[in-house]
From TrEMBL:
<keyword id="KW-0479">Metal-binding</keyword>
<keyword id="KW-0378">Hydrolase</keyword>
<dbReference type="InterPro" id="IPR020550">
    <property type="entry name" value="Inositol_monophosphatase_CS"/>
</dbReference>
<protein>
    <recommendedName>
        <fullName>inositol-phosphate phosphatase</fullName>
        <ecNumber>3.1.3.25</ecNumber>
    </recommendedName>
</protein>
<keyword id="KW-0460">Magnesium</keyword>
<dbReference type="InterPro" id="IPR000760">
    <property type="entry name" value="Inositol_monophosphatase-like"/>
</dbReference>
<dbReference type="InterPro" id="IPR020583">
    <property type="entry name" value="Inositol_monoP_metal-BS"/>
</dbReference>
<dbReference type="Pfam" id="PF00459">
    <property type="entry name" value="Inositol_P"/>
</dbReference>
């Protein structure tokens, strides 16, 4: 293992590349996009998703040979274990927003060492906001340090959730979360898991709930949220697995257990 690895250098490169990649995406708005569907009509991929993933792979392999890359579009390595340094990259998180709105999408990069999240970067490309954290050093929005999350009552919480999970779907009984939605102050849905996780870290959302995310959707957000004292687990309160799809419940620590116990596990009925 590369024991002398300079994490600050890694962080500096990753930040520089994420901003360069953001510029490439912004400059692409005026050119014709090639849009394809993947698993279903709502699962989109564009030539830019591929191009940006390739952009990172070229730079990482040149500057950090030996590091492995797990990317959404599968251009990187066939990552089966988390041994060593693994870059977990979503070149465009919120591809549907990218295609339909040209905003509210992000580049998400989590850098893990032996399965432990060391660096989390989420770049909201159009707003220009970079959310970043190194494990143990706090989280930041651009140059501003993000404070630890304050206690929030559920009645005063604003949570990110997509309406899919309270209508008929394959992953959760839609009646489970409906009472939670009634109880909280409000709900929002932005259509980019990375941005929603960054918002939890920044205290703009008090929680984010979704039933199906891939590692590249949450790898960076997990590092950011843990740095501000938030919790990120599956909806049943278990640890996330980094090599498979998970449900994700990211929230302010003050009501995390209460939501899992009352609304998901039905313990207090
Ligand atoms: P994407 O745009 O990178 O595909 C939308 O609600 C959020 O869920 C986005 O972050 C989107 O990521 C993610 N998402 C959409 N379809 C998904 C799928 N089939 N598996 C995992 N995550 C998905
Ligand atoms: Ca993506």
């Amino acid at each position: 293992m590369d024991s002398a690895l300079d994490w600050n250098k890694l962080d500096t490169y990753a930040k520089q590349w994420i901003k360069e990649a953001g510029n490439i995406i912004r400059n692409s708005f005026s050119s014709q996009l090639m849009i394809q569907t993947k698993t279903s009509p709502d699962d989109l991929v564009t030539n830019m998703d591929h191009e940006i993933e390739q952009f990172f792979i070229e730079r990482i392999t040149k500057n950090f040979p030996g590091h492995r890359i797990l990317g959404e579009e599968g251009v990187g390595d066939n990552v089966q274990t988390l041994v060593g340094i693994v870059w977990i990259i979503d070149p465009i998180d919120g591809t549907m927003n990218f295609v339909h709105q040209q905003r509210n999408f992000a580049i998400s990069i989590g850098i893990y060492e032996n399965g432990v999240g060391k660096i989390g970067l989420i770049f909201d490309v159009v707003s220009g906001d970079l959310y970043h954290a190194q494990k143990g050093q706090g989280a930041f929005l651009n140059d501003v340090s993000l404070p630890k999350l304050k206690n929030v009552k559920l009645e005063e919480a604003v949570i990110g959730i997509n309406a899919t999970w309270v209508t008929e779907n394959k992953r959760i009984d839609p009646t489970k979360l409906a009472p939670l939605i009634k109880r909280v102050r409000g709900t929002r849905s932005y259509g980019s898991a990375a941005i929603e996780l960054a918002y939890v870290a920044a205290g703009r959302l008090d929680a984010y709930i979704t039933m199906r995310l891939s590692p590249w959707d949450f790898a960076a957000g997990l590092v950011l949220i843990e740095e501000v004292g938030g919790l990120v687990t599956t909806i049943e309160g278990k640890s996330l697995k980094l090599l498979e799809q998970n449900s994700v419940f990211a929230s302010n620590a003050s009501f995390h257990d209460e939501v899992v116990d009352t609304y998901v596990l039905g313990k207090n009925e």
